[in-house]
Specification:
Strand content of chain B: 15-25%
Helix content of chain B: 40-55%
Distance between the termini of chain B: 39 Å
Shape of chain A: globular
Order of helices and strands of chain B: HHEHEEHEEHEEHEHEHEHHHHHH
CATH class of chain A: Alpha Beta
CATH architecture of chain A: 3-Layer(aba) Sandwich
Oligomer: heterodimer
Number of strands of chain A: 10
Distance between the termini of chain A: 21 Å
Number of helices of chain B: 14
Low-confidence stretches of chain A: none
Strand order of the largest sheet of chain B: 2-3-8-5-7-6
Mean pLDDT of chain A: 86
Number of strands of chain B: 10
Radius of gyration of chain A: 18 Å
Largest sheet of chain A: 6 strands, mixed
CATH topology of chain A: Rossmann fold
Shape of chain B: elongated
Low-confidence stretches of chain B: none
Structural class of chain B: alpha+beta
Strand content of chain A: 25-35%
Number of domains of chain B: 2
Helix content of chain A: 25-40%
C-alpha cells in the first residue's frame, strides 16, 4: 500500500469573506492522491478546478477543512515553510508554460534548484541539461523561451517542474494551447516521468481523450466532487 | 570557470537587462543627478577654499592685542548724572607678552606665534610723504603667519639693522627700488633712515602701499615700546577652529583676542549661505533621483508581476523577491554614481578650460577628489536602496496566484 501524497478532508474555500459578494467555491471536498497515481481533474469552467489546484499546490490556503501534504497538516505550517515545501516538493506545469523570458531554457530548468540552494552550480547545470535531454531539447538549451515553439516551451516547463524530483506534479491544462500531436507528446512525457519517478500527478484538462488515458478521473461540478472513478 | 551569481543578484541583473530602455533611462537620471552633485560640491569646495586661502594669505588666523583702556569710576553711577568721554587708545604693549606667547605656543591647535610691534609712520623721500604702517617683526617667525616669500618681487623677506621690506606700490609712489633709501618719521618725532632690502606684492594694493617691515627692536625703539609688542599673530591648524581657539585664549589671558572669523564675518556669512544653497540643491537632486528610481521600479514590479508569481510558485520566498528589487535599486545607484562621477570629471575639465581668471590661470582645477566620488557612490547606492524599498515590498507582498493569472 503506497502512502498518500495529499489528503483533503472537508476542504472549503470561500472568496470575499465578509462582503456582499461572498462566494463559497469549494464545498467540503474529501480527496486523496497516492504516490505514483496519475489522475485527471475535469469539470466545466467555474467548477473550482483552478482553485482546487492552487490550494493543493499550496499557493492558496483553504478556508476550512484540512489539507495534509505527505502526512503533514499544512494549516499549522508558517508561510516560510509552506513556500519551501512548495518549492521542493511540488512541480507546476501551467497552461501557458510561464517560463521566465529573461532566462534561457537551461536557466529556467535550473531555477527551482537555484531557489532551493541559493545559487547555481555546475552540478545543477548538469542535472538540468539531463532533464532537457530527456524532453528532447538539449540542442535548444541556451535559447530564450521566445525563440522556442509552443510545444518546446511546454517541454521546458515540464523539465522545470521535474527539476527537484517533486513528489507531486500539478498541471493546469498543460496541453491546452497545443495541437493534438504535440499535446500527445507532452502527455506521453508526463506519463513517462510519472512511471519513472513514481511521483503523483494531477492534471486539469478539458480534453476527454487525454482524461481517458489517466488512471483516475475526478470530476468537479460546482465545487463538489461529482464522481471519482478509475479508468478502465 | 563561470561566474555563478546567487539567486537574488542573478535575477536582479537579468530583470534590469530585460527592461533595457527603462534601465537606461533610470541610469541616465541617476548619473545626471550624481554628476550635478559631485560637480557642484567639487566646484564650490574649491572656490571656497581659494577665497579663504586668498583672504588668509595676508592675515593671521588669530591676533592677540592688549585690552582697550576704559575709564573706571569709583563713584556709584546711579547717584550722579555723569558725562564720560571714552578714552583715546594709545599704543601699548601686551603685558608680559613672552609669557602669553609661550602659553599660546603650547596650546593645542596653534601652529605658529609671531610677535609684532606696529604703529603709524610716514615714509618720506624728497617732497613725497606717504602714511605707512611700521611693522616690526622677526621675519623667520612672521613667515609662518603670512607666506611672504611667495609674494616677493625683488630681494628677500629678511630685515636686519636699518634694512626694510616694502610693498611695490609704496616703492612706485616714492620712486625707489632695491637698495635705495627712504626715511620714516613717527608722530613722536623720531625718525630713521631705512634701506630697501626687499619689495613684495601681496595682491592687495592698499597693503602694498602701507606695510613697511623692519626689525622688531628697531620698531620697538621708534614706537617707544622698549621690549614690548603691540600684538601677537597666530596661525592655527584648522582654520575653522580659529574662533574656538580665540575664545580659549581670551579666557586664559584676559586680553583682546580676535580670530579671522570675526574680522571677516561677512565673508564667512557669504560662504555659509553658499554652502546652504549648495546643500539645498543637492537635497532636491537627491529627492528627484530617488523619485525617479522608485517610479521606474514601481512600473517594473507591475510589469514583472507574472515572473514574480512564477518565482514564488517555484519556492522563492517573500524575502528573496524583496532582495531582487532592493538589489536592482542599489545597482542602479552604484552604477549611476560611477557614470555620474565620470560625467562630473568631464564637466570639470570643460569648465576649467572655459572659465579663467583675469591672468589666464584656470578659475578652478579640473581635479576631482576621490572622497567626493566615494561620497557620491555611498549616497547614490543608499538612495537607490531606499527608493527600491516601496516597490520591493509591493513585489514581495504580491499574491502568487493573482500574479500568475494576470
Amino acid at each position: 500500500m503506497s502512502a498518500a501524497v495529499i489528503e483533503l478532508t472537508g476542504l472549503t474555500k470561500t472568496y470575499n469573506i465578509g462582503t456582499p459578494v461572498e462566494t463559497e467555491v469549494l464545498h467540503g471536498l474529501d480527496l486523496s492522491l497516492m504516490e505514483g497515481e496519475f489522475a485527471a481533474l475535469i469539470g466545466p469552467s467555474g467548477s473550482g478546478k483552478s482553485t482546487l489546484l492552487n490550494i493543493i499546490g499550496l499557493l492558496e490556503r483553504p478556508t476550512g477543512g484540512q489539507l495534509s501534504f505527505a502526512g503533514r497538516n499544512t494549516a499549522t505550517l508558517p508561510e516560510a515553510e509552506i513556500t519551501q515545501l512548495r518549492g521542493r516538493s511540488i512541480g507546476f506545469v501551467f497552461q501557458f508554460h510561464h517560463l521566465l523570458p529573461a532566462f534561457s531554457a537551461l536557466e529556467n530548468v535550473m531555477m527551482p534548484a537555484i531557489i532551493a540552494n541559493g545559487a547555481p552550480s555546475d552540478a545543477l547545470e548538469a542535472t538540468a541539461l539531463q532533464l532537457l535531454d530527456a524532453v528532447g531539447l538539449k540542442a535548444h538549451a541556451h535559447k530564450k523561451p521566445g525563440e522556442l515553439s509552443g510545444g518546446q516551451q511546454q517541454r521546458v516547463a515540464i523539465a522545470r517542474a521535474l527539476a527537484l524530483r517533486p513528489r507531486l506534479i500539478l498541471a493546469d491544462e498543460p496541453t491546452g494551447n497545443l495541437d493534438t500531436r504535440t499535446a500527445d507528446d507532452i502527455f506521453a512525457l508526463l506519463r513517462e516521468f510519472n512511471r519513472d519517478s513514481h511521483c503523483a500527478c494531477l492534471i486539469v484538462t478539458h480534453d476527454p481523450r487525454l482524461a481517458a488515458r489517466c488512471d483516475r478521473v475526478i470530476r468537479l461540478v460546482d465545487g463538489n466532487i461529482a464522481d471519482d472513478l478509475p479508468t478502465a | 570557470m563561470k561566474l555563478r551569481l546567487p539567486f537574488a543578484p542573478l535575477v536582479a541583473l537579468r530583470f534590469l537587462r530585460e527592461g533595457r530602455m527603462q534601465t537606461l533611462l533610470i541610469l541616465a537620471g541617476t548619473a545626471g543627478g550624481v554628476a550635478v552633485i559631485v560637480f557642484l560640491t567639487q566646484l564650490i569646495t574649491q572656490l571656497q577654499a581659494q577665497i579663504v586661502d586668498r583672504v588668509l594669505g595676508s592675515q593671521a588666523h588669530v591676533v592677540i592685542r592688549p585690552l582697550e583702556e576704559t575709564n573706571l569710576r569709583a563713584i556709584d553711577d546711579a547717584a550722579f548724572a555723569t558725562l564720560i568721554e571714552p578714552r583715546a587708545q594709545r599704543l601699548r604693549s601686551i603685558d608680559q607678552w613672552e609669557n602669553v606667547a609661550r602659553l599660546a605656543a603650547d596650546m593645542p591647535g596653534i601652529t605658529a606665534v609671531s610677535p609684532m610691534a606696529t604703529g603709524p609712520a610716514f615714509a618720506l623721500r624728497g617732497q613725497a610723504s606717504k602714511s605707512v604702517a611700521l611693522m616690526g617683526v622677526d621675519t623667520t617667525l612672521y613667515r609662518r603667519i603670512v607666506r611672504m616669500d611667495e609674494y616677493m618681487l625683488a630681494g628677500r623677506f629678511a630685515v636686519e639693522g636699518p634694512r626694510a621690506v616694502i610693498g611695490t606700490e609704496l616703492a612706485k609712489d616714492l620712486g625707489i627700488g632695491l637698495e635705495d633709501k627712504l626715511r620714516v618719521m613717527l608722530p613722536n618725532g623720531r625718525d630713521e633712515l631705512l634701506q630697501v632690502g626687499g619689495i613684495f606684492d601681496i595682491g592687495n594694493k592698499d597693503l602694498n602701499r602701507r606695510w613697511v617691515f623692519v626689525t622688531l627692536p628697531l620698531a620697538q625703539s621708534l614706537l617707544d615700546l622698549p621690549g614690548g609688542v603691540s600684538s601677537l599673530d597666530l596661525t592655527v591648524a584648522d582654520i575653522f577652529e580659529a574662533q574656538a581657539i580665540a575664545d580659549r585664549l581670551k579666557g586664559a589671558t584676559g586680553l583682546t583676542v580676535d580670530s579671522w572669523m570675526q574680522t571677516n564675518a561677512q565673508l564667512l556669512a557669504a560662504l555659509r549661505n553658499q554652502t546652504v544653497s549648495n546643500n539645498l540643491i543637492r537635497s532636491f537632486v537627491v529627492i528627484i533621483v530617488a523619485l525617479g528610481i522608485a517610479s521606474v521600479l514601481v512600473v517594473s514590479v507591475v510589469q514583472k508581476q507574472k515572473e514574480i508569481g512564477i518565482l514564488r510558485a517555484m519556492g522563492a520566498s517573500r524575502a528573496m523577491i524583496l532582495q531582487v528589487f532592493l538589489i536592482q535599486g542599489s545597482l542602479v545607484g552604484a552604477v549611476g554614481s560611477v557614470i555620474g562621477s565620470l560625467l562630473a570629471f568631464g564637466l570639470l575639465q570643460t569648465f576649467s578650460a572655459i572659465y579663467r581668471n583675469a591672468d589666464g590661470t584656470p578659475l578652478f582645477s579640473a581635479q576631482l577628489e576621490p572622497r567626493f566620488i566615494v561620497m557620491a557612490a555611498l549616497v547614490a547606492t543608499s538612495v537607490g536602496l531606499a527608493s527600491a524599498l516601496i516597490p520591493a515590498r509591493r513585489a514581495a507582498r504580491m499574491d502568487p496566484v493573482q500574479a500568475i493569472r494576470s
